[in-house]
Amino acid sequence: MSAPSGLRPALDEIVLAGPRGFCAGVERAIEVVERALDVVGGPIYVRREIVHNRHVVEALREKGAIFVEELDEVPAGATVIFSAHGISPAVRDDARARGLRVIDATCPLVTKVHVEAQRYAREGYTIVLVGHEDHDEVIGTTGEAPERIMVIESVEEAERLEGENPEKVAYLTQTTLSVDDTRAIIEVLRRRFPAIVGPSKDDICYATQNRQAAVKKLAAGVDLVLVLGAANSSNANRLREVAAALGTRAHLINDVRDIKSEWLEGVARVGVTAGASTPEFLVREVVAYLSSHTSPAVRELNVVEEDVRFGLPHELLEIARPSVRRLAASSPSS
Ligand code: SF4
Description:
alpha/beta, 5-stranded parallel sheet, 4-stranded parallel sheet, 12 strands, binds iron/sulfur cluster
């Protein structure tokens, strides 16, 4: 992949944030598509981007996955995978009505928010969902109880909320928000609705929290932060904002080709991080480009080790079982 030309040789150090890149939910979703391509006879359809990164989507498309926006593009009886961001119950019902075989790659931490929404709705609460209205995850969660859920994304909106029974308000949050901004919004909600209930902390997932903690530490010690991630990736956008909020110049880039040489003028230390849906090879390409004119030191700045893994969806395991049995039966006995 070619990189922009004109890099100034002033760079002393590249600092890589850790953790960065793929989270457990994204790794699982990609594995779901890859395994499905192996074990399911016939085409594999994926509704929407499996994760918000076009490099990931393109790689899976090359392996044979067919990406669609809506279920009416999937032939009756075919297999469809739902993305890591989750879906509303209406989409699940639609899939059933169309006779589709479903494999659900929704991240378990998103499913947890859906379950909370179902419970609060059942118990008669009005649910304030803090998140971005047009994000797939929020659309999916809202679909659990559209008549009970109100989406807000700012302190100002929290201040303006009206007409609720103050004794029956609950809040939930999207999994990939800014930890700091969300805390401020929840503080307003707690002041305005003292009886409000919500999850024990908030729903922001471990991967979002860890990547934001890492970019904060990173941004404090570099002149420029490059965040690898897609423009429609919520968690990648938040990483750029968190770095910029500390007064450090920060840019969100899809890949190395987006780097502008003028960003690097007079820059001695560059920090690099990546959103939870960004493959590591894109980070390596950026490091190679930044190292192409000088020989800066490359250092890892790790704030926490992650060892989270999620099991594969039961639907996939059910489909895979016969082929595993066939494989076992055809193996020579020892
Ligand atoms: S960012 Fe968090 S909620 Fe989203 S897929 Fe990754 S682990 Fe799951």
